[in-house]
Specification:
Chain lengths: ~850, ~100
């Protein structure tokens, strides 16, 4: 026990946490008494995505610590306590709570703090910084009585803060000292375009403004006075004028400090005291502070390895500071020597004022290598360009082709991924190299989704998704793995291709499809797939004689087959709303046919134990009572769950039930590659669990937030935020397009979650297609959806109105009567299928025929 | 052996099946491209009488029906399960007389 060493981490931010994760991953956490002490009131959270707090206003959504992580690895995690001193001689630290802790090894992961320029008045009320969840809470609270907000600093973080203020509904100003925005990352040309785009969003940009005083305002709380005599009044002020390393502890204990701050470290991340490490934004390596998450994580991994004895020989030897981000919806990327400071460097620039795109590449004097790049408005080339720069790959003869649009539709000049060395880092967020990806493919991964799961590549910022896909394909080809994507032996096509053939060729039946494009008789793979595609395209009645035999088990009888060959019946209750009379009608039917009754997870009622011949009788009664089919049997829209919303709930901000009912009625009957589930919550408390659905809608004060591609079930996936604060019309437009695009392009039985994980370009690409209509197909998608909606019919109504169809539900073609082998027993006051033993015992059995 | 008339050809949807009751026995009868096949209706894997409701098709040129419950395939001409040859369902002789489907018992 007592010979275990004490390992203490000061600062529980993203980097401190990565250090603990690395220690835990080594399996050696048990060799130490590990303590992490953080000053903030909560444990590590995702500061990179701090702004996402506004989506939910719940701190929990940013949490980085997996449930049970501290317990499992016996880590003592202390929040709300600040370390104030290090006694290096006795190896003891002391805190503001008066506690002392003994260490053998100490890791400083204290990050940085925002620099607030010492302008007179900077300490006034309603002056904030933008660094912690508490900062955001305070800004939000202050915004309630404010009309105008200003941010001092037009860098990366300043623009993020400006977006937040804009989203809070305030008139927003950005004040920058330099002549352009994001002066560090972009050049004049890119800065000018960025400025235009941001001003188009309604944010006022003031450059070359040196704030000299903050005093009382006349129309607003503060008045800012600038060196050039100009003035600006604002109610809220946010300082975002850069960060400074939090090195106070190192100064106090006389560790070596850089000239302009930062705790000096070596390649193992040790400070001038070998028992003390420093990692993340507080550390200074090679005279530099690295204000990004990826280098911080690299330091954490190197330090953890060294603390554990250096088995893996990991070191930190600097990092690339290239970045790609989205600022107020504008793609911005900067690579390497963006300002062409290298002697002899030459630039190629492409400006498209129409599409508002700016691209510049910086090449070496010889024209052989890429030194840097700036991309504004379209950063798709980032992954490719970064690889050229990092790996010093020889440029093509006309490097400008890499940023010019390819108007003739030919493949853009990218690099073959074969040109990359195995050491090339593909995913910088999670430090995944090409070699790691290749190893995973050799180990059996065959999809981008597999690679994400086993290597974590492309799971943080997603900028490398396309490259990951290219490595995957190249490696599969090399391994001679023939990626056979044919749907089955009868059709040499993927589902997407068949969809296309059906739509373009106006094919209306499986027979036509087989004759034109397939062979053999079809099977239980291609037939239901074709049935679904035919229904998605033309939405004919699925039990027409030529379609009936194609339908999968449940569609075949418009009910869900259960283990004993009986069916369950689910009437639609849109949005989960049902009248007392409706409830009584359902109860009466259930009682009459002795059906087992259960509430489903989708907020409706499931009636079990109906025999084939009972189905039309039951449906006749349900339809007479005003119900229609719930499509519980189909690969189609199931339910749109809702909470009671603003109509009843004291927190609700929109009528979530009304919206859910409208959405359910709009998309009911849409056949899709797999089932679709949706939900609408009336406020951010999210009682309808919309973020676990294919389409999730959450009410905001200004409209709706749309989430897509969530999933519960076997592989849960949190839905991604797709659009914020949109009105109902826009919501419906996006959902129309989204669903039809999914129907067009997904594989057979692929839920939206897996579909998105495998979609090249990921969420950004999807947004472009749906929101910006980058493929020019939005109108088509909407028209296709309109056709489906126009042709909606309650399949059960159509069925019971047609005698020939009803005949298909007879148990026997030659005699009346039902299946004598179907027997039930009574349990908890209802029926359930009898087991084989119960059947053999032949006691208390309930027969239906 | 005698032939019993079951139903007419038009009682079965193209490339689909129906179930007939012969005494206590349930027989699944399929119509594939106009040809008639008959095998037992009880799915040996679930003991439920459901094979007539499965999807018919071909696998490597063998005509088969897929059980609607757990999706094993049964050869329409022999009743043998394609996934496990030790399992099979009965197989019946069928013929058509004009528009009528008849089974031998
Ligand atoms: C709004 C915003 C957007 C960003 N976007 C990006 C981005 O897109 N890409 C990117 O790469 N980076 C981004 N960053 C930067 C990124 O968040 C940082 O690089 C990262 O948080 C650094 O992690 P860290 O653990 O070193 O420091 P921190 O996150 O600062 O964590 C340090 C922790 O230590 C605590 N602490 C400090 N001193 C003490 C003490 N004496 N005792 C106890 N606890 C102490 C602090 O309270 C803090 O919780 C962004 C940052 C912000 C604020
Ligand atoms: S999500 Fe909001 S509106 Fe809906 S029930 Fe919960 S708290 Fe009420
Ligand atoms: S979780 Fe399993 S047992 Fe339950 S309904 Fe789904 S498939 Fe059936």
């Amino acid at each position: 026990m007592s010979d275990k060493k004490h390992l203490i981490v000061v600062g529980n931010g993203p980097v401190g946490h990565q250090f603990l994760e690395s220690i835990a991953a080594s399996g050696k956490a048990g060799d130490y008494h590990i303590t992490v002490i953080g000053e903030e009131p909560r444990h590590a959270y995702d500061r990179v995505h701090l702004t996402a707090w506004f989506e939910t206003r719940e701190a929990a959504s940013l949490n980085m610590v997996a449930d049970g992580f501290y317990e499992e690895h016996q880590i003592t995690a202390i929040a709300n306590e600040k370390v104030e001193g290090i006694n290096r001689a006795d190896k003891i630290i002391s805190t503001d709570k008066g506690n002392t802790y003994q260490y053998d090894t100490l890791v400083l992961a204290t990050g940085s703090f925002p620099f607030v320029p010492p302008v007179p008045g900077h300490e006034r009320d309603n002056c904030f910084v933008y660094r912690t969840i508490e900062d955001l809470e305070a800004i939000t609270a202050a915004s309630k009585d404010a009309k105008v907000g200003a941010v001092i600093g037009g860098g990366l973080l300043g623009l993020e803060a400006a977006k937040a203020i804009k989203d809070l509904g305030l008139e927003t100003h950005v004040i920058e000292f330099a002549p352009r925005l994001m002066a560090v990352q972009v050049d004049d040309g890119g800065g000018a375009l960025l400025r235009k785009k941001i001003e188009d969003l309604g944010v006022k940009v003031h450059t070359q403004k040196n704030t000299q005083n903050i005093g009382d305002g006349e129309t607003a709380k503060h008045k800012l006075s600038f060196a050039d005599g100009a003035e600006l009044e604002t109610d809220i002020l946010v300082f975002s004028a850069g960060i400074r390393p939090q090195d106070a502890l190192a100064r106090q204990s006389e560790l070596e400090i850089g000239e302009r701050g930062g705790i000096v470290i070596n390649d193992n991340c040790q400070t001038s005291d070998p028992d003390i490490y420093a990692i993340g934004e507080c550390a200074l390596w090679g005279g530099r502070i690295y204000g990004l998450i990826a280098p911080g994580w690299d330091m954490a991994r190197a330090a953890a390895d060294h603390v554990l004895g250096g088995a893996e020989g990991k070191t930190f030897t600097g990092a690339d500071m290239s970045t790609k981000l989205k600022l107020m919806g504008v793609d911005v990327a900067s690579i390497g020597d963006a300002h062409a400071n290298t002697p002899g460097a030459k630039c190629y620039t492409f400006i498209d004022e129409q599409a508002e795109v700016y691209k510049k590449i910086v090449v070496s004097e010889s024209g052989e290598h890429l030194l840097g790049a700036v991309l504004v408005g379209d950063a798709e080339d980032y992954g490719n360009l970064l690889q050229f720069a990092l790996n010093k790959i020889t440029l093509p003869e006309h490097p400008e082709a890499m940023i010019l649009p390819n108007l003739d539709g030919s493949a853009s000049v990218g690099l073959g991924v074969d040109a990359l060395p195995d050491t090339a880092q593909i995913c910088s967020c999670n430090n995944v190299s090409k070699g790691d990806l290749c190893a995973a493919v050799q180990g059996g991964a065959t999809t981008v989704g597999d690679l994400k799961a086993c290597t974590k590549a492309a799971t943080t910022c997603g900028g490398c998704t396309a490259l990951v896909g290219q490595v995957l394909n190249a490696e599969l080809t090399k391994l001679g793995v023939e990626v056979n994507t044919d749907i089955c032996e009868h059709f040499p096509y993927t589902r997407q291709e068949i969809y296309h053939l059906v739509r373009v060729g106006q094919i209306k039946s499986f027979e036509q499809l087989l004759e034109k494009h397939g062979k053999g008789h079809g099977c239980d793979i291609c037939k239901p797939a074709a049935a679904s595609i035919l229904a998605s395209c033309w939405n004919d009645y699925i039990l027409q004689p030529e379609h009936a035999g194609l339908q999968d088990t449940n569609d075949r009888m418009l009910a869900n087959m259960q283990k004993n060959g009986t069916y369950s019946v689910v009437p639609r209750m849109a949005g989960g709303e049902v009248t007392p009379d409706g409830l009584i009608a359902v109860g009466t039917v259930a009682k009459k046919y002795n059906l087992y009754t259960k509430i489903t997870g989708g907020q409706r009622i499931d009636l079990f134990g109906a025999t084939l011949d009972q189905l039309p009788l039951i449906w006749k009664e349900l339809i007479d009572a005003g119900f229609e089919t719930g499509h519980a049997y189909g690969k189609s829209l199931r339910t749109v769950k809702s909470c009671v919303g603003s109509t009843w709930c004291r927190y609700g901000v929109q009528d979530s039930v009304g919206a859910a009912i409208d959405i359910e009625n709009r998309y009911k009957g849409l056949r899709s590659p797999h089932k679709l589930k949706m939900a609408v919550s009336g406020c951010t408390r999210e009682c309808a669990e919309a973020q676990s659905k294919d389409v999730g809608v959450i009410a905001t004060e200004k409209g709706w937030n749309l989430y897509v591609c969530g999933n519960g079930g076997m592989k849960p996936r949190h839905a991604d935020l797709f659009a914020s604060d949109i009105d109902t019309e826009t919501l419906i437009k996006y959902v129309d397009r989204f669903l039809m695009f999914y129907v067009r392009t997904a594989d057979r039985l692929q839920r939206t979650s897996v579909w998105l994980d495998n979609l090249e370009g990921g969420l950004d690409y999807l947004k472009k297609v749906i929101i910006e209509d980058s493929l020019g197909i939005a109108a088509e998608l909407e028209a296709e959806m309109a056709l489906v909606i126009d042709n909606y019919q309650c399949e059960w109504k159509t069925t019971i109105e047609n005698e020939e169809r009803v005949k298909q539900f007879r148990s026997f073609v030659n005699v009346d009567g039902g299946d004598k082998d179907i027997v039930f027993v009574q349990e908890r006051g209802q029926i359930r299928p009898a087991t084989e033993e119960e059947k053999a015992r032949n006691e208390d059995l309930i027969a239906v025929a | 052996m005698s032939w019993t008339t079951i139903c007419s050809l038009s009682d079965i949807n193209p490339n689909a099946g129906v179930c007939a009751l012969l005494g206590e026995e349930q027989v699944a009868i399929f119509k594939v491209n106009g040809q008639i096949y008959a095998i037992g209706n009880k799915d040996p894997f679930s003991n439920a009488n459901v094979l007539s409701r499965g999807i018919v098709g071909s696998l490597n040129d063998t005509l088969a029906v897929a059980s609607p419950l757990y999706k094993q395939h049964f050869n329409l001409e022999t009743g043998i399960c394609l996934e496990d040859e030790t399992v099979s369902v009965p197989c019946y002789q069928v013929r058509t007389e004009g528009d009528l489907i008849q089974i031998a018992i």
